[in-house]
Design a protein that fits this description.
This protein is of the alpha+beta class. The protein is built from five helices and eight strands, in the order E-H-E-H-E-H-H-E-E-E-E-H-E. Helix 1 runs parallel beside helix 2. It has a single domain, classed as Endonuclease Chain A (Endonuclease, Chain A).
């Protein structure tokens, strides 16, 4: 999205969505709006991120526009193996911005399931049926808080993962 075409907060998707295409569109709109609305924190959460458009040029341009010191980006997954082969541009962005990116793996026995969601201080999107791409998004404070509690529990039980670089001897 061009900077002059950024949605205002009222234009961010609100309500139920149905299908992978709707999910992708909502995600793109949210990331394009992130810098415009000065969101301090973004959390992306999914078991594996296999069907997220994170390797697209437009996604990385939106994240680049949002990125700067004082921001916080949390990536939460059960596994990160898809990134190297499926989201190469994102891997490069993650390396550049490693000082604001925290990646957590939550896959220990007894850990809660990782929700498929995006969370920000003023908006969220949660895929309640990832297989069919169905979910809900909006600004509802109660739903946003409940989603954040689920995410925080996964973060607490998780461990660092997806390092920005691999050092070897």
């Amino acid at each position: 999205m061009a900077p002059d075409a950024l949605p205002d907060l009222a234009a961010l998707p609100d309500g139920a969505f149905d299908g992978p295409k709707a999910f992708d569109t909502n995600l793109r709109i949210a990331l394009a709006a992130a810098a415009h609305h000065n969101w301090r924190e973004i959390v992306l959460s999914d078991p594996a991120f296999t069907d997220w458009p994170l390797g697209e040029r437009a996604t990385l341009e939106a994240l680049q526009a949002w990125s700067r010191s004082g921001r916080s980006f949390i990536l939460l997954a059960q596994r990160f193996d898809v990134f190297e082969r499926g989201h190469a541009r994102f891997v490069q962005w993650r390396q550049t911005w490693s000082h604001i990116v925290e990646c957590r793996v939550c896959n220990a026995a007894g850990a809660p399931p990782v929700p498929s969601a995006i969370w920000t201080p003023s908006w969220f999107m949660h895929r309640v049926d990832p297989e069919r791409g169905r979910g809900v998004c909006g600004r509802d404070p109660e739903r946003r808080a409940a989603l954040r509690e689920r995410i925080d529990e996964c973060i607490r039980q998780g461990r660092p993962g997806f390092p920005a670089s691999t050092l070897g001897l």
